[in-house]
């Protein structure tokens, strides 16, 4: 039995959950998320908890059990609290500026790079070198943050570029070190 899959999911106050056929809808103060439950996996409501169960011990059902539980838990957390991902810009002359709903990055190219905010995602810029990506869908927040980081990855010699706030860059020595 999956350790993660058998944990019940606590439903906080203000979150409504409805299951129609195989589509789970989660409503909260921040928005609404839906997810199509795969065949062989069932989601049941018991008091103020959600329980994810699998139909059989087939390899496919075992693999999906913990995954579906994690995705449903992320939906519940997303509509009640939301998710954030923080990026830092390191480098002389590198900066970010909020423009409308998107951001404009100056990261060493001959032109500024505009990043529009996808639907459901908001950007905050603290100072000129900190970008905060916010949203209710954990996967989309992480993907947008990864796409921004991809614009100028941190390089290993001076550490210049866009990095996650909790990321550690292992620096290399230059060619004069040998």
TrEMBL record:
InterPro entries: Ribosomal_uL6-like, Ribosomal_uL6-like_a/b-dom_sf, Ribosomal_uL6_a/b-dom, Ribosomal_uL6_bac-type, Ribosomal_uL6_CS. GO terms for cellular component: cytosolic large ribosomal subunit. GO terms for molecular function: rRNA binding; structural constituent of ribosome. GO terms for biological process: cytoplasmic translation. It comes from the Bacteria. Belongs to the universal ribosomal protein uL6 family. This is Large ribosomal subunit protein uL6. It comes from Candidatus Moduliflexus flocculans.
